Amino acid sequence: MGELFDRLKKDLHYVEGMQACINCGTCTAICPAAEHYDYDPRAIVELVQRGDESELEALLKSDTIWYCGECMSCRTRCPRNNTPGLIIMALRALSQETGYFVESEKGRQQIYLKRTIGHDILKTGYCVYAEGLATTNYPEQGPIWDWRQQHWKEIMDRLGANYQKPGAGAMRRIPDEALNELRAIFEVTGAMNRFEKIENFSREKAQSLGMHWDESLDNEYVQKAYHGSHNNS
Amino acid sequence: MKNVGKQLIWQQYQKEIAEDHFFYVRSCIRQNFFPGAEATFLRILKDVLHKDVYDDPAHTTCTGIGYHTDIIPLETTMTVVARQFALMTEKGYKNFIPSCVTSFGLYLEILESWHNHPEVLNQIRKYLKEATGRTFELPENIVHASDIIYKFRREIASKAKYRLVNQQTGQPLRVVEHIGCHYAKMFPHKSVGGAEFPRVLSGIIEEWGGEVIDYPERRHCCGFGFRQYFIKANRGYTFSSVKKKFDSMHPYSPDLIVTNCPGCNVFLDKGQYVISEQEGIVYGANGYGIPVLTFEELAGLIVGFDPWDIGLQVHQVSVEPLLDKMGVWYEPEKKYRGKNNIPLGQPLQPTVLKTF
Ligand code: SF4
Ligand code: SF4
């Protein structure tokens, strides 16, 4: 064991998720990600249980840890009370803290998530703010979504939302004091620090790959992360 | 009566659900995608069941989607959750009801971690104080919004205008229920029926006249997977899960799907459109899909709210086949109208899936 393991074992997700694995494979049998990707939660739990530092480093740099959907189906069925999904969360946190996440294609997608969900939370107080999300990027939402986008405010008003107004209700404008408190919590508890790490490691990677980089979602690096380049999706 | 034998065994599948005085926290996904659903829930609580429920303008996202896309550290999410509890405490409430299933699972996970590690709870109290000056008590009762509907399902049935019965044949409607992974898979003993015997929606459906379909992939995930849907390159994960579920339920000819979690509703509704466009497959009768309602929408329909007031027009799969089977009165021409009956045009038709 070494430094990476020392850090991993301090993560509360790891503490809660890892007891002792008997390698039965039940988690893999139930796992939706294992059906879709070349992914095996049993093997991940086995790897971290083995304690080989170089194997852990390779895992943190791989696509593998990003395949899980965090559905936690594995938690229900494990006969030894492990939660591979929580172990994955600890691995992903460490991969971002160390900067290893930019070494895999799936890991590089974190910049897109940070710049959409992360920004929405701080700007609006909602983790998803769907006004303006177009079917060009989300074609699965269908023609009904185009209609909703065209008449976003009118439909909100029709359905009793308190759209962008002060006071209680759906899609209300969350008061500035609440947003300031959220931001203060993010500062004090490490979310801002993680955001900075995601930005800095991603920028360095973009530069080393010679890819165009800026603060938008439209640059080459972010777009490539979002659209993907190989065929296992 | 002594709790022995089977009664003792079944006891662990039940849960305590508070009677009244609720502090309600909204769901980001539900507000964005089904803005009428939460209004319908509150209308039922206040006007039908005459309960006291508080909807605080100052609450925010729980950060759940950020947490499960791993951009937000655990300590941050815990402190944001602590802030929601502080608002509840300040308003004098003890019964906490999240609208979102992701949030519900997250609140349970955090309470469990604090229970196992009191030093973490102390640290979070310090973080919250430092960041906001607030302090908080833990909720005495925390249940998902659907648990409240489950608890009062008989009272709602006694006031119902419609039932889940086919008016032409007199037969119960065949209903698929989907409780969502984070409702019961993490903390089965904190849900009605646990992960093994999902009861929260099936209890409601049966009470209101329907028949629950027990199909092989009933417990399979909807496929959201957080980063798996949000990133375009990963979405095959989502829609292959959706297809697996629909292929499995199709032989049972469901009339309706009811969801607990707003995210699942998006994927089971829109997923039918995706599969129809990509594979040419439609799972409902006569070229239409299988309507997918949230539990609040279903409750609103049962007690006789106007389908377009509760927001059934925002689903991609048309709900009219269900309304017709149940004999629900509605005005087809008002479906795509705004407030004060202002026409808002018509959505385009999908290529394969038929819509009204
Ligand atoms: S189900 Fe539990 S014990 Fe079995 S392989 Fe998975 S983590 Fe190990
Ligand atoms: S949480 Fe991850 S590892 Fe566990 S079953 Fe779900 S996708 Fe698989």
List keywords for this structure.
heterodimer, A: 233 residues, mainly alpha, Fumarate Reductase Iron-sulfur Protein, Chain B, domain 2, 2 domains, 14 helices, 57% helix, globular, B: 356 residues, alpha/beta, Glutathione S-transferase Yfyf (Class Pi), Chain A, domain 2, Rossmann fold, four-stranded parallel sheet, 17 helices, 8 strands, 8% strand, binds iron/sulfur cluster
Any overview of this molecule?
The complex is a heterodimer of chains A (233) and B (356). With 233 residues, chain A is an all-alpha fold. Chain A folds into two domains: 96 residues, Fumarate Reductase Iron-sulfur Protein, Chain B, domain 2 (Orthogonal Bundle), CATH 1.10.1060; 121 residues, no CATH class. Chain A has 14 helices and no strands. The radius of gyration of chain A is 20 Å and the shape is globular. In chain B, helix 8 runs parallel beside helix 11 and helix 13 crosses helix 14. By secondary structure, chain B is of the alpha/beta class. The mean pLDDT of chain B is 95. Chain B is globular and about 60 Å long. Chain B contains 17 helices and eight strands. In chain B, strands 2-1-3-4 form a four-stranded parallel beta sheet, sandwiched between helices. In chain B, strands 6-5-7-8 form a four-stranded parallel beta sheet, with helices on both faces. The longest helix of chain B has 18 residues. Chains A and B meet through helix 2, helix 4, helix 7, helix 8 and helix 9 of A and helix 2, helix 3, helix 4, helix 5 and helix 6 of B. The structure holds iron/sulfur cluster (2 copies). One iron/sulfur cluster (SF4) binds next to helix 3 and helix 5 of chain A. The site of one iron/sulfur cluster has 15 residues of chain A, from helix 4, helix 7 and helix 8.
